[in-house]
Amino acid sequence: MKNITKIIVLLFLIFFIPTIAFSQDGFTQKDRELLIELRVKMVEMEKKFDKRFEQVDKRIDDFRQDVNNRFKEMLGFIQVLAAVLGALVVAIFGFAYWDRRTIIKEARREAIDFIDKEGLLRRLVDALKTLAREDKRLAEVLKSFNIL
Question: In whole angstroms, what is the distance from residue 37 CA to residue 29 CA?
Answer without folding.
Answer: 12
